Automatic annotation (TrEMBL):
Domain Phytochrome chromophore attachment site positions: 134-293
Residues spanning the signal sequence: none
Pfam families in UniProt: GAF, HWE_HK, PAS_2, PHY
Keywords noted in UniProt: ATP-binding, Chromophore, Kinase, Nucleotide-binding, Phosphoprotein, Photoreceptor protein, Receptor, Sensory transduction, Transferase
Source species: Komagataeibacter melomenusus
Family annotation (InterPro entries): GAF, GAF-like_dom_sf, HATPase_C_sf, PAS-like_dom_sf, PAS_2, Phyto_chromo_attachment, Phytochrome, Phytochrome_cen-reg
Enzyme Commission identifier(s): 2.7.13.3
Phylogenetic placement of the source organism: Bacteria, Pseudomonadati, Pseudomonadota, Alphaproteobacteria, Acetobacterales
Top-level taxonomic group: Bacteria
Catalysed reactions, as listed in the record: ATP + protein L-histidine = ADP + protein N-phospho-L-histidine
Stated name of the protein: histidine kinase
Amino acid sequence: MTEHASHQAGEEGIQPYGWLLACDARLGHIVRWSANAPAHLGRDGLEVGLPLRDVIGREATHNIRNALAMHGEAHRRPALVFGQVLPDGGRYDVAIHTAGPDIMLEWEPALGERDGAHLSLLRTMIDRIREITDFDRLFRTVVRLLSGVLRYDRVMLYRFAEDGSGKVEAEHHGPNLESFLGQHFPASDMPAPSRRLYSTNLIRVIGDVAAPPVPVISPGNPLPPDLSHTHLRAGTPSHYSYMRGMGVAACVSVSLMVDGRLWGMIVCHHYSAHVLNMSERIVARMFGEFVSLQITNLLRTKRLDMTRQTHGLIETFLKGAAPVADMPAYLMAHLTDMLTFVQCDGAALWVGGQWTYTGQHPPEPAMAAVLELARTRAGTQIWHTSCLAAYIPEAAQYVQDAAGVMILPISSQPGDYLLVFRGEEIRSMKWAADPAAPPRSEDEDGYFGPRSSFAVWTQQVTGTCLPWSGDDMEAATLVRSALIEVMGAYHQLQLRERANADLRQRMLNEELNHRVKNILAVVQSLVSQPVEPDMTPAQHVERLRGRIRALGLAHDQAVRSDGGGLLRALLDAELAPYRERCFITCTGPRIWLTGQALSVLALVVHELATNAVKYGALGQPHGRLDVTWSHDAAQDEWRITWRESGVPAATRPRRRGFGSVLLERGFPHELGGATHARFHPGGLEMIMHLPCRHVRPAPDEQTPDAP
């Protein structure tokens, strides 16, 4: 039963070491008050609607308004005013928080202690645990520090398991008290409403179970007050009865929140009345929040280390898997390596209709039932159990080898599985309550502790394995994702390779047909050129051979270079025979020519070189040839300049041959460019304008140009 529900039964009230006023949302008028409030205020009584400033004074009202305004929404964490003096001279610490339409003002006597001393104490406590990287040491230090600071007879730190049960992980107590260290408490000892309440109200204090609760008066208001987040809230009769039965007179609990859930609690017992003032409560709460952060940090560090190790395993596995043609065989061969991600005793791999085993596992005849369990329970998600016999009764016969199993589907569709087994682990668990007994009523003060005595129930747990943890699941999820990716990529690779092979064959046939037609057309054009008048048939044939050889060179470069080639490589190949007789330079950036441009320029360079041997620089002992090329951004074109010098009597040819026709007509027609020739006293200069669509930067993987 929640706090709100218990108040509907007439149990609303607060603890008597403080008093309470409830105001409207504007902090204008009083709507409720605790029965002891008039006495603390020095008044005979209170009435609904009294202005707050007339009750506590203008200064106190102003200070409370300012604290609430600066704090914002005071729900999970109250706004605080320390040492507030009231008109009658009383000095109080005030906690302010909202509760539905009301604003609750909790007043506690200020004990005159310096807040700075508590702040310094809190800083010292935090420094003591800041650098601790071990859970056990952290827990022991926390309970020792709180025992010394809060002065309780017993301080315990609980940790909740995945099933909601609790265990005392650390304890510090007086010399005459029996220890609860290591005891377990059933999940039913803290029902769901209690967990929700402790997840939002992070500290709960009961100062004296013998002190009768003070009722809250709500004249004319049919709705009971919501005291869920009130520090002064009294406990329920069942909780008080439990505490009195155990001899506990006062207690405090501090919630430990990790990743938004109730991870554990720090619980303090005292065997006489013990009230924490507001400063001490703030220290306890803030220290608890820092402990929660430290636990979160250690858990994430541990998880990060585990993730790194798993990623290392996956990376090594993926590197080896990349070139593998038979992935199922590779998985089977590396089954042992894959099991390092989680603590286990053995495993089985079902891939391609075949089992592969390592370590402990069920007998082979029993694997059919285990496989059926994988298909029905796991499907395409990871599934695990610590008690395989609960699903396969026959598994009780081989619990030593496989008491529990984790099933990892390793393909996008159900069919292939990795099964990880753990053998039986016999454990003796000490319960502070009989785990088979019915749970207590679901009140808001659900409390881990013995129900009626210090008796301990010892349970012998058999037939199960070590429970699978969240870290196990996270590591398994990472490995499963990698395996699914590898298997999926393997299948896709097979499909792509078959499709690509068919496509490459078709493209090769089409490209071969296209290139053969183009070469034949060019050769036909070369052969169709008439014999020049002053040339013998043998000379004509030799020139024709040279032109076809140049065309063959360009075609060879295009074939070897995937349809194009480097301009520098073309020039080096064409001009190599003349370097011994003439000084030749080729200067320009590495550029890549398309196949069409490469073929045309091969013929152009061949004709220019042939003419230069007969009439120009390549035929002179002191001749010089400079070929340069550069990009003209303004015209968006490449300019290739062929400049001959060192020719004593350079003259324009008396007739127009194939080279002239190729430059003036073929170059513009085939490439969309233009050429300009100019004769100067020392030789010839030919400028070719090549559109940028025929040129692109040279690929990095190409062989560097020759110097």
